[in-house]
Amino acid sequence: MKRFILFALALFFYLPINSQSEIYEFRVYDMELFRSADILHDYLQKALIPALNRQGVVNVGVFEESGEALPPKIYVLISYKTMQAHQEVFDALALDDQFKKDSEFYNTIEPKEIPYNRYESIFIRSVSGFPNLVKPADDLDFFELRIYESYNEDALRRKVKMFNDSEFDIFKDVGLNTVFFGANISGHQMPCLTYLLAFKNKEEHSQIWSKFGAHPEWQRIIKLKEYDNAMNDITRVFLKPLPYSQL
């Protein structure tokens, strides 16, 4: 059943199957402007993340936007070996007495006290050129989230191929530190890919991207007809990790 799900997803996205691929759940919480976020932070830090860790899910990332973006958002990144593993973990949480105890306050608060309006749960599958999440060094705490939208599935396939064949090597050459990379399975910007980069600060971010733009391999591949119209929109969000983030 697990292999069938991966095969079906690969057909849908015209992307090659990789046995090392991971699944990422990326949650985006739309926070209320005039309510304290402490309830959500306590739930994530003291209930959900410890429970996920007990199930072998490690390096859970929690971020907020850098700057004064309104309305505020909280981002949570959770990695799984497979989609089936995601289902098994959350089935296990339902039977975890410690998790039930730790999340009791969160589960019983009044609706008017919940600090967010809703959250979107986006699922992403890693690609062959970057199959596994990499925890960044401790001094890299300035993050850039990038979402590349394509106008159809084949355009997305070509953009992913561009990364697999060339761009990941350019990233290494110029010093771009990738945390995760994948093609989205679900979300409101489909079809698209999503990735996260880590830097020391905004200055390093600007310096490294300047090197990328001038790299001879980048200058070569952007002229290839194969990659024409592979991407038609970019979303960039700068993030900073919360104190209890494991990334």
TrEMBL record:
Query: One Pfam family, short name please?
Result: NIPSNAP
Domain (NIPSNAP) spans 143-246
Q: Which domain of life is it from?
A: Bacteria
Instruction: Supply the name of the protein.
Output: NIPSNAP family protein
Q: What organism does the UniProt record list as the source?
A: Gilvirhabdus luticola
